[in-house]
Design goal:
17% of the residues lie in helices and 36% in strands. With 89 residues, the protein is an alpha+beta fold. A hairpin with an 8-residue loop joins β1 and β2. The structure holds zinc ion.
Amino acid sequence: MRLYLLTLRRSDYGYDTYDGFVICAKNEEGARRLFLEQKLCADECTGYLSSAAKHQCIWADPERSECRLLGNAAKDVIAGIILASFRAG
Ligand SMILES: [Zn+2]
């Protein structure tokens, strides 16, 4: 397992948004897939959508978010989000 830093490529999404995560996953694809599978996103993804609109996830999109490999995780670290940075309103 590896540790990844996932951050927004733009910083102007406003409040009630996540602007970064540290994630433990097998690879970048696995780190990004967490958000599609677990619906963890806040207003950075869903704030401007009607409830019927399709969720185009920022965290799954390399054009809008950057995923940087930080290094190998210790053997006992469980896959998932290690730390989240949230900008409350
Ligand atoms: Zn999303």
